[in-house]
Specification:
heterodimer; A: alpha/beta; 7-stranded mixed beta sheet; 15% strand; B: alpha/beta; 5-stranded parallel beta sheet; 16 helices; disordered N terminus
Chain lengths: 217, 487
């Protein structure tokens, strides 16, 4: 996983609540068996004027000039500020892969859907929770100031704007550690392999009907 | 917004006293906790992982790249459901990209010796339909799947939740997940719902009241008179929709209905082992003095059938109401969301729901494609015919077994004689990854779970309803109150 320590980048606003993972990355791109290449399809149905699929040349598809991320002032944005319950819906991790592939490193919102939030943490995409009114203020500042950037400092749990405006945010300490150190959490779990085996042996004795159930003939 | 039938019962403190009992969720959690770290992260043991073709290829690839192998192949069942075509008599998947994804699943299962129900196998179907149906899902288990609707399995008092691909790989590699425990939330469905008002309507009414994030960070236990009276199929519909309220898990306590459902299923235990299992399963209920961090009560007797009007399941009204107008919104943020949703849906606000004309009907999905759902829809369709303005009405059974059962009861003929298409099992037009989809601007009454923009096809407009309501809408050509059809 790519570590997240400090990041400075352009902020783009997407002022809507309940943005779901179907909108973030539509289903036709889920047919890919890879983790990469989803960047051009982030918000695909909002970004382009006509539908595409895995075989399209996205650089040739006409873009929707009204979509905020297509505006020239937000080109190169790496931080998104958006509405509540962000990432609701499907468990597709492709939504997080699309953000990273499009160059995003952080999403700021009043709240996130649980599965998206977990998926983000597993891939080094920082999710920052701010109170609803703070998000509102931030959206207004971003819209008013072209080239608005934020410095995010995860160890310090702060965000600082060029104006000097500062926000601090909360994050689960274990998640913070994994993000800062870029840890492979499968390897961390496997440190407990002996304990898992011990638990498993006891569970087999306690609920034998849950073992040796499936397998190809 | 219409008057909410929700009453906030109590907002209990997070601090539980040592003397208080445990919830069903607490019991399931404790039984699967390998260890809990000081910071509260629990290493949770997973009894079964269900795997499908869309969210697993990158997990198997990650496993391979790290030089790892599945920890317990005997705990995994795989099935292709999202991409499979539903047209009858197809030898293979016509779309090459979809076919490749299913072939990758087949190859991964072959490589690691995993049980798979391949396309054409009578056991194949939607992963959340076949789990309970085959006795793969049993009370007291932990079940995960790279699919958000894994909450469905909680109807059997199973701790079940959807995960992303990184977590699919984590469970493959370690049989465990490091997780934080969600809060306990109790939803009591009191009273008895009117005929024609089903579990889907109750779920939509609940989401309409508490919002699409109303259960975020929680596991919801459904209880109360209306739940006790429900069949297992109805309980699965209810738990399936828990994720649309933001809750990763839904749960129902074990009772005789649960035990009766499990008996005799292919992968369920038998004989003395079953007796011992049932003795333990009977304990899978919340203690009388268990404390829930949140609780809500819904009076079901007053509810009408529900229809969603927008692009979030929380945007829902009773069938006898009008589509809300943005100027009725509580605040400007909500008003903007409503305007965007109405614009996408081709509505202005203020329309009478029963005046909304439809183009397509979809009866299917992990929410509503079980035998009881098809019986309910067929009971409405019997003796009627699809209206002339309906371009297509699809019935997609949830599994090969559901399809065979329906055919043995003659339901397929009721549907086809009424102008419906009778299809092969799969996820189909719920998410339109296969050829079943809406064209831009088409309006659909769907028994699925999400009315998101583009969900059923780019530009498609989805109204979520129960199977009975979808069937009635097909016959009328527009929404109708199915209670009038049943009277």
């Amino acid at each position: 996983m790519i570590p997240f320590i400090r990041h400075r980048g352009i902020v783009a606003p997407l002022d809507r609540s309940n943005i779901d993972t179907d909108v973030i990355i539509p289903k036709q791109y889920l047919k890919s068996v890879k983790r990469t290449g989803f960047g051009p399809n982030l918000f695909d149905s909002w970004r382009y004027l006509a539908p595409g699929d895995l075989e399209s040349d996205h650089s040739r598809r006409p873009r929707n000039p009204d979509f905020v991320l297509n505006q020239s002032r937000y080109q190169g944005a790496s931080i998104l500020v958006t509405g509540a319950n962000f990432g609701c819906g499907s468990s597709r991790e492709h939504a997080v892969w699309a953000f990273l592939d499009a160059g995003f490193r952080a999403v700021i919102a009043p709240s996130f859907a649980d599965i998206f939030d977990t998926n983000a943490a597993k891939n080094g995409l920082l999710t920052v929770r701010l109170p609803e009114d703070a998000v509102r203020t931030l959206v207004e500042e971003v819209e008013q100031t072209e080239g608005y950037q934020l410095d995010i400092d995860l160890p310090e749990q702060t965000m600082v704007a060029d104006s000097g405006a500062t926000w601090s945010f909360d994050i689960d300490p274990q998640r913070k550690r994994c993000l800062v150190e870029g840890l492979d959490d499968i390897a961390l779990t496997l440190h407990h392999a002996d304990q898992i085996r011990e638990f498993e042996a006891a569970r087999r004795a306690h609920a034998p009907w849950l073992f040796d159930r499936f397998g190809s003939p | 917004m219409p008057l909410s039938p929700i009453i906030d019962a109590h907002q209990a403190s997070n601090e539980k006293t040592i003397m208080s009992g445990r919830t069903l969720y607490d019991k399931l959690w404790d039984e699967h906790a390998v260890q809990t770290a000081e910071d509260g992260t629990t290493l949770l043991y997973i009894d079964c992982q269900l795997v499908h073709e869309v969210t697993s290829p990158q997990a198997f690839e990650g496993l391979r790249l790290a030089g790892r192998a599945p920890w317990r192949p005997d705990s995994i069942v795989a099935v292709a459901d999202h991409n499979v075509p539903t047209e009858p008599d197809l030898e293979e998947i016509p779309d090459a990209v979809s076919r490749h994804q299913v072939e990758v699943l087949d190859a991964n299962c072959a490589e690691y010796g995993l049980l798979e129900f391949p396309m054409g196998d009578p056991r194949q179907g939607i992963v959340h339909v076949i789990g309970p149906e085959q006795g793969i899902t049993l009370p007291g288990m932990t079940v995960v799947c790279g699919d958000s609707h894994t909450s469905t399995h909680g109807a059997l008092a199973t701790l079940a939740f959807g995960i992303g691909t990184s977590q699919v790989e984590h469970v493959l590699a370690t049989q465990c997940l490091p997780v934080r425990k969600p809060a306990n939330m109790l939803v009591r469905l009191e009273g008895r719902a009117a005929p024609g008002v089903g579990a889907k309507d109750l779920a939509l009414a609940l989401i309409g009241s508490i919002g699409a994030a109303g259960g975020t960070g929680c596991a919801i236990e459904f209880a109360g008179q209306a739940v006790e009276a429900m069949s297992m199929e109805a309980r699965m519909t209810l738990c399936n929709m828990a994720i649309e309220a933001g809750a990763r898990s839904g749960l129902v306590a074990v009772d005789d209905v649960t035990l009766e459902y499990v008996r005799g299923r292919t992968y369920a235990p038998e004989g003395a082992v079953l007796e011992e299992a049932e003795r333990r399963w009977r304990e899978l209920r919340s203690d009388g003095d268990a404390v829930f961090e949140r609780a809500v009560v819904l009076q079901t007797g007053e509810l009408a059938p529900q229809v969603t009007w927008g692009t979030s399941p929380e945007m829902v009204v009773p069938v006898d109401a009008a589509v809300p107008r943005p100027d009725e919104a509580e605040d400007s943020v909500r008003a903007d969301d409503m305007k965007a949703a109405l614009n996408y849906m081709g509505l202005k606000g203020g329309e009478t729901v029963t005046d909304l004309e439809l183009d397509r009907i979809f009866i299917g999905s992990c929410t509503n494609a079980r035998i009881e759902d098809l019986r309910e829809a067929a009971a409405v369709v019997r003796g009627r015919h699809c209206a002339d303005n309906i371009r297509q009405a699809l019935v997609v059974p949830g599994s090969g077994r559901v399809k065979a059962q329906a055919e043995s009861e003659g339901l397929d003929r009721i549907f086809t004689e009424a102008g419906f298409e009778w299809r092969e099992p799969g996820c189909s037009m719920c998410l339109a990854m296969n050829a079943d989809r809406l064209e831009p601007g088409e309006r659909c009454a769907a028994t699925s779970n999400r009315n998101f923009e583009g969900r059923q096809g780019e530009g498609g407009r989805t109204h979520l309803v129960s199977p009975a309501m979808a069937a009635a809408a097909a016959c009328a050509g527009h929404f109708v109150d199915v209670r009038e059809y049943l009277a």
